[in-house]
Specification:
Blueprint: H1 7-14, H2 17-40, H3 42-50, H4 82-110, H5 113-136, H6 142-156, H7 159-170, H8 176-183, H9 186-201, H10 208-227, H11 244-250, E1 263-265, E2 268-270, H12 272-279, H13 285-289, H14 294-323, H15 327-355, H16 358-379, H17 384-414, H18 426-451, H19 456-473, H20 475-485
Antiparallel strand pairs: 1-2
Length: about 500
């Protein structure tokens, strides 16, 4: 009698070969972008150590000082304009990132994603470590740290278009919102890990707060070089179906390759030779802008990312100033915002998959975020329980739309039906959307540094205004989706032609 298979083996054989590969790619790219965000976070944790309240610090007995108020600060951040100098560091990275992102997608469509990601992660690790070496080499010049931030910002642009393109190559539209909502938690997981790792070293040796994350992202670059699979076809797996028409076309008999006749399916006329040529050409920048919805979602992301990145770079300092926590405590507390972001991204993906309304889901979460930001500023520090609850809620509402636009929406638009099967648009579309959003990511921390001198209330008014503007930019798409629900126009689940 044949012995039954062990339960573990039955489980392995139950899951198809294609599913194993898809799961492997999802986990691998998750690790890659977790490392990217992990290496960005230390600067926000270290800020409160570079400029401290020296009156509460224990002064070494053998230290000869000339200024009791700034003896424990790291030059040049010991000056009264330290917030402006922090803004210079933030924007050196973010402006370089925003500019580089528009070119990164173009490169990503034309070179191997495996080589591109590997190079970007290794170089990001090098520049992150160089920032931390400033502590051990006793470097006190602003230009050194700003230059490192610029170069690191350019290297970090290799990440997002490439990982989204890779995931988009492996996963179809069916449950893309939920899958990419869960997958996009790498952003918050990276921020949390980056905060915790930096917090371990920040009070004793802040240089290690950069060096350890730098070594981690460089190691993931090596991992990418040896294991990343760019497309299902590379390992004889079935490609995903990006559209309903893909399934319809799959059931049709193949057209005679020698025939010059055109065939029709759902009113779309194509010629086989022309389609084949389209597959071999990467889309142009202007061609990507003409895809319906790209401009609206890009501009919406500009304001949504302005809010998210202001929290990313300034929340630990805000908590330290308002709640009077030390650098490590403020960094640990700020991770709750990212925990809320994980939940918000998953919720946004589920809701948009179920309703078929990507724009409406973003609009609802953005409109709810505005009053929550107002409440957090006024009552968020009244008690520990209130602080925890408000950080989780604000993190979910702020990062939910941001996560949905940069993942599922970008993948939907990059495989839009108007492209007629051209799969080489995904990286460019992703770069345009995230590049435009990165302009907001650069402006948010800059404005926060300038406005915070007049009080934190004004910073929150700026963030609330940005949320409202993001909602207004999605109004046309929301109107189209609502009309679709009311039966005035056809509506397909997931992103539709708008």
């Amino acid at each position: 009698m044949k012995a039954p298979l062990a339960p573990g083996i039955r489980f392995i054989t139950y899951i198809s070969r294609d599913s194993w590969y898809r799961g492997f790619i999802l986990v691998l790219t998750f690790l890659f972008y977790t490392a990217y965000h992990l290496s960005r976070k230390p600067i926000s944790i270290v800020k409160s150590e570079l400029h401290r309240n020296c009156s509460t610090a224990i002064r070494p007995a053998d230290l000869n000082i000339t200024n009791n108020a700034t003896w424990c600060d790291w030059q040049p951040f010991d000056q009264d304009n330290y917030q402006t100098l922090f803004g210079v560091l933030d924007n050196s990275f973010l402006v370089a990132y925003a500019i580089g992102m528009f070119f990164s997608g173009i490169f990503g469509e034309r070179v191997s994603l495996r080589y591109y990601l590997s190079f970007g992660m290794v170089m990001s690790g090098v520049f992150t470590c160089l920032f931390g070496l400033g502590f051990y080499l006793n470097i006190h010049t602003l230009w050194y740290y700003a230059s490192i931030q610029i170069l690191n910002g350019l290297m970090q642009t290799t990440g997002w278009p490439a990982v989204v393109a890779c995931v988009g190559n492996w996963f179809g539209k069916g449950k893309r919102g939920f899958i990419m909502g869960v997958w996009n938690s790498h952003t918050s997981v990276g921020n949390i890990l980056g905060s915790l790792i930096a917090g371990v070293f920040v009070s004793s040796s802040w240089g290690m707060s950069f060096i350890v994350p730098g070594l981690i992202i460089a190691s993931t670059g090596v991992l990418c070089f040896f294991f990343l699979i760019e497309r299902p076809e590379d390992v004889n797996c079935a490609p995903p179906q990006h559209h309903v028409r893909d399934a319809e076309n799959a059931s049709l008999p193949p057209k005679n390759a020698s025939s010059g006749d055109r065939t029709s399916n759902s009113g779309i006329y194509t010629e086989s030779q022309e389609v084949e040529e389209d597959h071999s050409k990467a889309i142009s920048f202007l061609g990507a802008l003409r895809i319906p919805g790209v401009v609206e979602f890009s501009l919406c992301l500009l304001f949504a990312k302005l809010v998210s990145y202001t929290f990313l770079y300034w929340l630990p300092l805000y908590i330290s100033n308002i709640a009077h926590f030390d650098a490590k405590q403020a960094g640990d507390m700020s991770t709750l915002f990212d925990v809320g972001g994980i939940l918000g991204g998953i919720l946004a993906g589920l809701a948009s998959d179920y309703t078929g309304g990507r724009a409406t889901t973003c609009w609802v979460m953005l409109i709810l975020a505005a009053p929550m930001l107002f409440l957090y500023n006024y009552i968020g520090q009244s008690s520990l329980g209130t602080t925890i609850g408000m950080l989780l809620l604000c993190g979910g509402l702020v990062n939910g739309p941001y996560a949905l636009i940069t993942t599922a929406v970008s993948a939907d638009l990059g495989t839009h039906e108007c492209l007629r099967g051209n799969s080489r648009a995904l990286s460019t579309v992703t770069a345009i959307i995230d590049g435009t959003g990165s302009i907001g990511a650069a402006l948010g921390p800059l404005f926060a540094g300038l406005i915070s001198h007049s009080g934190w209330n004004n910073v929150f008014y700026m963030l609330i205004s940005a949320d409202v503007l993001a909602c207004l930019l999605l109004s046309r798409l929301v109107y189209k989706e609502i009309r679709g629900w009311c039966g005035h126009i056809p509506r397909a689940r997931g992103f539709k032609e708008i």
